[in-house]
Amino acid sequence: MLDSLKTAFKLEELRGKLLFTLAMIFLFRVGAHIPVPGVNPEAFANLLTQGALLGFFDVISGGAFKNASIFAMSITPYINASIIMQLLTVVIPHLEKLAKEGEEGRKKITQYTRYFTAVLAFIQAIGMSVALKGALVNPTILNYLVVAITLTAGTVLLMWLGEQITEKGIGNGISLIIFAGIVSRIPSALVSIVEYLQVGTINILSVLLMVVVGTLVIAAIVFVNEGQRRIPVQYAKRVVGRRVYGGQTSHLPLKVNQAGVIPIIFASSLLMFPGQIAAWFQGNVVADWYLNWFAWGGALNSILYALLIIGFTYFYTAVIMNPVDMADNIKKYGGFIPGLRPGRSTAEYISRVMSKITLAGAVFLAAIAIMPNITLPLTGIPDLYFGGTALLIVVGVALDTMKQIESHLLMRSYQGFLK
């Protein structure tokens, strides 16, 4: 791998892309330490102990939330806007038509997503500044607006950085920003573990157990992310002029984990939000009842969390993968699945296969998500937010980025990362 990296830096074009990507990530990390005006960082950091939702935001933002920085909301509004736009593309005919118009249509949808991101970011920033008013130095209307506009500008800037990485760098920019934020927490997590060892809060066996579990989880994530069901597709021969086209056998790849980490984000946000609200109103009968029975990491919460992830996995996969369109595309280019008629029979077969492999992917995502609720009590390591979801994001982004570097190297007949 190190030899491949040396080879990559020898190529001028690829070296420029890698350096540009690193420069954009560096700007992100610098911005994560620029505080929002009018906010007390110490009071803001203390609010992290009042609920799992704020801790989750801090992991995604790479500590920017805890620092009360301009990137405190991270890229979350953009992710939410993108997901909502994908869902609206299915139900709104105009957006569906744009999605089928090729590059120009996708550009318009991307532009709509940018505007929607700014609106969502401002609404979320207003809600955050009001809900966390205890951290404001001077809680006036003007100060609320200053904080909200600053946080919104930070999210829009991150969105721009991500798009620049995608266009001029290597990998998916938005994913790399989340990746960089999570990875940046590793050094502080290691320091905390060393401190816990020194004071006797945990022992070396707990650390070894965490390393073993983490290694097994990473191996499982790679296995499932790369797993796919390949449906054979035969293309009939076509004679166009004096040339013969088709006649070859190909395959339709269906990934086991087609939805990625989106169902976990959906389910965690849905479950963490009521818990966060209840944490702000401790002492209230309803809030205390909810915290007692549905506390994050509890048995009922974990069961509900797993069921929501499985449901959202099926839902999101159904939105992004349409068996009817897939069957029509196969038929359009003169292809067919051996033993099946083109059209409806093919669509029904693809739908059945997708349901089976989606179940495997959904159960895997649920197991990864609730794994920290089981392993953390066993290891006894407190305040460790770097769990299965973070590993899933980090490993997935790393694999996709390596594949892009691999493709650049293979185009120039160099040996890449993957053999």
UniProtKB/TrEMBL annotation:
GO terms for cellular component: plasma membrane. The chain crosses the membrane at residues 75-95, 115-135, 141-161, 173-194, 200-224, 260-281, 293-316, 357-378. Keywords: Cell membrane, Membrane, Protein transport, Translocation, Transmembrane, Transmembrane helix, Transport. Pfam families: SecY. It is found in: Cell membrane; Membrane. It is a multi-pass membrane protein. InterPro entries: SecY (IPR026593), SecY/SEC61-alpha (IPR002208), SecY_CS (IPR030659), SecY_dom_sf (IPR023201). Its main location: membrane. GO terms for biological process: intracellular protein transmembrane transport; protein targeting; protein transport by the Sec complex. SUPFAM superfamilies: Preprotein translocase SecY subunit. PANTHER family: SECY/SEC61-ALPHA FAMILY MEMBER. The central subunit of the protein translocation channel SecYEG. Consists of two halves formed by TMs 1-5 and 6-10. These two domains form a lateral gate at the front which open onto the bilayer between TMs 2 and 7, and are clamped together by SecE at the back. The channel is closed by both a pore ring composed of hydrophobic SecY resides and a short helix (helix 2A) on the extracellular side of the membrane which forms a plug. The plug probably moves laterally to allow the channel to open. The ring and the pore may move independently. Component of the Sec protein translocase complex. Heterotrimer consisting of SecY, SecE and SecG subunits. The heterotrimers can form oligomers, although 1 heterotrimer is thought to be able to translocate proteins. Interacts with the ribosome. Interacts with SecDF, and other proteins may be involved. Interacts with SecA. Belongs to the SecY/SEC61-alpha family. HAMAP family: SecY (MF_01465). This is Protein translocase subunit SecY. It comes from Desulforamulus aquiferis.
